[in-house]
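ENTRY TYPE: paired fold submission
RECORD: A
CONTENT: sequence, then structure tokens
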Amino acid sequence: MKGYLVLDLAINELSGFMEYVQKIPEFIKKHGGRYIVQGVEPELMEGSWLPQRLVVLEFPTKIAAKEFLNDPEAQQLFSLRKATTTSNLILAEGCE
């Protein structure tokens, strides 16, 4: 079953974050992933959760999503994202 990474983020330092934006697609693709939602401002429909920006990535499997997150070559970029944003990230397995 597919794996989905959902990232809720607020950008605190745009110029530093742009390096992440430019370089991370290579690693997403390397692990078979693709953007489903790419940095949009979501519209609140119910409840109180309202991220400033939302990203949803789809991977062929939950394992592939974890491999993306653990890719040693991408760790510097993940550190950059964490330093330039306030974010929450979850992993969910899709339905068949």
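RECORD: B
CONTENT: sequence, then structure tokens
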Amino acid sequence: MNQFILIYTEKNTNRIEYIFDFICCDFLGIDFKITTDVTEFINSDLPKINFSTHFFEDEINFQIDDILVENEIRDDVNYNQLSEIGKCFYWLSRYEEYIAQQHQFDHHNRFLGSELDYSKPIVDLIVLEIQKIIQLKYPHFQFNKREFKQINTHDVDFSWKYLNKPWFETIGSIGKKVLKGNFKEIKSQIDVLSYKIKDPYDQFNYIKQLSDKYKIESIFFWLLGDKTEFDRNLNWENQAQADLIKATNQWAKVGIHPSYISNFNESSQALEIKRLEKILNKKVLISRQHFIKLNFPNTYQQLLINGIKEDYSMGFAHKTGFRAGTSTPFKWFDLSTNQQTMLITYPFVAMDVTLRNYMKLTIEDAIIELKNLKNNVKEVNGTFITLFHQSNFEDEWSDWKIVYESLFND
């Protein structure tokens, strides 16, 4: 970054440093310096932005908001009265989730959203407008050339439907089906166990072939927690599963899928990360929360303590869209400590369960929804991230392979 811009403000704060670090460095690819010395600002020959209560006739002037110069978290902040830069901070810091009311969370304590428009990457659009303003004032200024990127992510809640399970679980499973009269499913289970047909959840080669053909990055997040009501994968010591994880890691990224219970038991998250590290024989640096249970600031603070560098949980379970108002990976700002952290947040825009179970979309409508979201990301040259479960491609989900394959179309 050899392009440099000088920013004047009357009082520099961590919040101001953070939002300009995102706007200038992460998004526009330029460097910046903040000064509180008005004489230095006036006399400088550098491209300049005034971010204060003063007005300079010959400079770029942006309004400053109270939330950027204070340390507390206030529940009376009116988003609509914020300046464009203040709005960006409000989105990225997830300010609204700290001050949200109980009715804005579901029974899993997941944020449902507010009256804000999550359908477009508002932050990205604002920063592109800021870029235009700077370029108009300084025509020779060079900005980073952003490029559209796509990442297909997959949560592995169940490695297999029937295979590689303890014998007593298999016997119990068949017994339950007998009592319910599900003889068709019993036949399918026996055919899988006798290797006559493939396990319905064994879709890893299918995903690999598409990933290789279209050169799209794939990431898998593995659930390795102990069994609870909402954590039902195989025991982490299952050797077949360990071999599958290591094989997948040869062609895709693999991260941890912290269990539902890890949100209540802090030691669980660290233990699950260590399990995956033992399997892979390397540090685990990426994660996504099971059930998309993301609670501020606790979830991210715990991930940082446990050495996670990148998290992919920033999205909604109930609807599609841009939960943080951006399609650009960004550093998490911890409002409770008023500090920028080194945890990089990668927002996703849609999940298979959301499209089918929550939004009740048809195959055709789901494809249209994903295409619209992808186009919105392309307009700002952001990163288009989706979440599909490899266990949701067969049986009642069989038609949804068409939806998944639509991700690879322009």
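NOTES ON RECORD B: The longest strand covers residues 149-156. The mean pLDDT is 95.
STATUS: closed
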